Amino acid sequence: MWGYQSEASSIYKRMSPSKDSSGSVDGEANSDPPWRHSLPHVVVATIISFLFGYHLGVVNEPLESIALDLGFSGNTLAEGLVVSTCLGGALIGSLFSGWIADEFGRCRAFQLSALPMITGASISAISKTSVGMLLGRLLVGVGLGIGPPVASLYVTEVSPAHVRGTYGSFIQIAACLGLMTALCIGIPVKEIIGWWRVCFWVSTIPAAILALAMLVCAESPQWLYKQGRIAEAEAELERLVGPSHVRFAMSDLSRLDKSDANDTVKLSELLYGRHSRVVFIGSTLFALQQLSGINAIFYFSSTVFKSARVPSNLANIFIGISNLTGSIIAMVLMDKLGRKVLLLGSFLGMAIFMAIQAVAASPSVPAYAASYLSVGGMLMFVLAFALGAGPVPGLLLPEIFPSRIRAKAMAVCMSVHWVINFFVGLLFLQLLEQLGPHLLYSIFATFCLMAVIFVKRNVMETKGKSLQEIEIALLPQD
Q1: What residue spans carry the region label Disordered (predicted)?
Q2: Where are the domains of the chain?
Q3: Burial 158-176 (b: 16+ CB within 10 A, else e)
Q4: What is the gyration radius of the CA atoms in the chain, in angstroms?
Q5: Element (H or E) spanning 60, and its range?
Q6: Distance between CA 30 and CA 7 in Å, rounded?
Q7: Domain 263-477 in this protein, CATH class
């Protein structure tokens, strides 16, 4: 699925000129496809990432007001459920995302993910009880579980190879913007009674735009080709890469189709069969991403900044700016340095800055120094995360998965992501109370170092490589 573009670019450069083609056409075909054709489709797809970030942050500021209005103020379990129910719904959605994407296509999958988000946000906005709020959050979570894996697939499939990394970074940037938007919209919640309902209503607007815009966006040419809809695949390729590149891309799709003789993908094949290695790499990357402590940092950021006498609103803005800055830098570097370099540098930086926070939490460090180390270490940790560990896994995995298993393999890996995310959010405060911040941050730093070793030994660079080259490197040959 990323293949039609990536391998097409490689084939453009190595195929000999056709005897019945004009020199000018061959000259254009041997160049990189123009990026302007695919950009609008990529931008629409990243709306789901914006919604992902928005819904993760939408209850941050309003949670206290929600609890007060719905009658569960002071009930920490109920407040925790408002957050974790969304994560549980996301796990449910992610389990079905691969099947939905393969059965109905990418564009329809986006629309199906938007539907529960619109419904769930509306239910939360009008809820009078905690049950209504939790039901709404569960439905929103289902949509969030379906959408992001499909976004990774779609962006990879419709992007020209020479800007695929840059376009992949749009996903992380959109999530950052969604999170910052949610935090900014939530600021008046303490001054305006019932403002939290407005926060939920606002999220229905981009979800509706996504559902409607997908009516005119290009469907995945490779998905269409595998469905036997050859003429439609060719038409979509013309929209995405331009007329001069269609012939070569279609030839490449034909080659890929022949290699995918068996379209049935069983779970056992992903976990124990010939594809188990790439699925293991993908699942472990997402696991280490969550075990690095990034979500714990977000959960604990207000407390750290409060100890340094920084207001919570300002703290959230600082975190958001750091996250967005790192994502923009990653966008610039993704197709220049490559995925593996960014992952290695990111996890190494995260280990260093998490270690600084562990030192700051030590009782032997003076209070004034601890505040500076905690705040500085936290901001730099988020920056390091956004440089690689945040955006790269969602881009890298569709590249290393063969086209036949890509959607379902992404579903498996995202399920691992949501399970660990759920338990980190559920257990973090208890672990913090029992272990203390010094030991807990040290554990997070250790996971970051483990990630550096894992990436060094198992992750290959995909920048500029064709699907065939990646499969030869990662899959045992029959």
Answers
A1: 1-32
A2: 36-218, 263-477
A3: bbbbbbbbbbbbbbbbbbb
A4: 23
A5: none
A6: 12
A7: mainly alpha
Query: What number of other Cβ atoms are within 10 A of residue 427's Cβ?
Result: 12
Q: Tell me if 299 sits within 8 A of 425, measured CB to CB.
A: yes
Average pLDDT over residues 380-390: 93
Residue of 428, 465, 407 lying closest to 265 (CA atoms) = 407
- CA-nearest of 173, 194, 175, 174 to 124 is 194
Measured distance CA(5)–CA(9) in Å, rounded: 6
Query: For residues 416 and 286, is the Cβ–Cβ distance under 8 A?
Result: yes
Q: Give the predicted TM-score (pTM) of the model.
A: 0.79
Q: Who contacts 374 (Cβ-Cβ below 8 Å, separation ≥6)?
A: 304, 307, 308, 357, 360, 361
Domain 36-218 has CATH 3.90.1150.10: no
Q: Residue 19: pLDDT above 50? A: no
pLDDT bucket at 201, cuts 50 / 70 / 90: very high
pLDDT of 109 higher than 90:
yes
Intrachain domains 36-218 and 263-477 with the same fold: yes
Contact 225, 212 (CB under 8 A): no
For 20, phi then psi, to 5°, come to -105, 20
pLDDT band at 308 (very low <50, low <70, confident <90, very high): low
Confidence of residue 227 (pLDDT cuts 50, 70, 90): confident
Assign 265 a pLDDT band (cuts: 50, 70, 90).
low
Give the whole-angstrom CA distance, residue 441 versus residue 437.
6
Using the Cα atoms of residue 98, residue 99, residue 103 and residue 104 in order, give the sign of their dihedral: negative
